[in-house]
Design goal:
8-stranded mixed sheet; alpha/beta
């Protein structure tokens, strides 16, 4: 059917053919962990071009229900001209949950290394779900998810990044302290350092005592929104202090960057944090 510019028609938008929009490059499946029997929605986006000889860099993304599309689009657009943007194509592996919303209650268990000692309720005043399963979750990533990804997609194991925000940022730091060479780049956005501070401080001390240089350096980006500085948790101050302490480990192979994003809050910081993280994790090899 052809429409002329001035032709009146009773055809409405409801009459036009429609289809759902899909994320380019992406596929998804459900995966159940052997250890603690939890179900995850795995989302993977692979660039369409041929991989480099060593494979594509890979980013493991936490809370994928909320930010997978944002990161995939950022990589898809910015990796078209690595010579201009400083970002090469990469495989994005999102770890989410089989729910419709951006977050699932199960994240409180998976992303926290120990139960909170100061907080009884969530920000919406509802009781907190079960917590303290980060060790199980990290084991799932290392022993179940990574082998499957590496068996199905051409990824470079020497260029692995983990990205998390809020409780996900807390988990990223836990992973760094517990298994520092599992990834080469750690992106901790607005990390919930207040959750169980004594536990994390002890984990940091053990990490600092045991860190040994490896073939490649470890990179950590701590990113927060400027508007978070007034929050009662004082996590901006805590993140800055953490970056200063960890910078002392540069001689043993750890590079630390602290970045405060002007005019951004706890949630609005995510797009700019993602863009900054990509420049760290996906810069072209020299």
């Amino acid at each position: 059917m052809t429409f002329k510019p001035n032709e009146q028609s009773e055809v409405t938008l409801k009459d036009l053919a429609r289809s759902k929009i899909e994320i380019p490059w992406a596929e998804t499946w459900t995966m159940k962990s052997r250890d603690h029997r939890r179900r995850y929605q795995i989302l993977v986006a692979k660039p369409p071009e041929a991989p480099p000889p060593a494979g594509f860099p890979v980013i493991y993304l936490l809370d994928a229900n909320s930010v997978f599309g944002t990161m995939v689009e950022a990589v898809r657009l910015q990796s078209r001209r690595p010579d201009k943007t400083g970002i090469v194509p990469a495989v994005i592996v999102g770890i989410g949950y089989p729910v419709d919303g951006p977050f699932a209650p199960e994240r409180f268990y998976d992303l926290t290394p120990a139960p909170t000692i100061d907080y009884l309720n969530r920000s919406d005043s509802m009781p907190l779900p079960e917590q303290g399963g980060a060790a199980h979750f990290l084991k799932f990533i290392e022993e179940e998810l990574k082998p499957q990804i590496e068996g199905e997609f051409p990824v470079d194991r020497s260029r692995q990044t983990i990205f998390g925000h809020s409780l996900g940022g807390l988990f990223v730091l836990y992973a760094l302290f517990a298994k520092p060479h599992a990834f080469q780049s750690y992106i901790a956005g607005s990390p919930s350092l207040h959750w169980n501070e004594p536990f994390l401080l002890e984990a940091e001390r053990e990490f600092a005592r045991g860190l040994q240089p490896a073939a490649s350096r470890i990179e950590l980006l701590l990113g927060v929104g400027e508007l978070e500085k007034t929050h009662v948790s004082r996590n901006c101050d805590r993140a800055l202090a953490l970056s200063e302490r960890l910078t002392a480990l540069s001689g043993r192979g750890l590079d630390v960057e602290y970045k405060e994003f002007e005019g951004e809050g706890h949630v609005s910081v995510l797009p700019v944090l993602i863009s900054r993280a990509l420049r760290l994790a996906l810069r072209p090899k020299p």
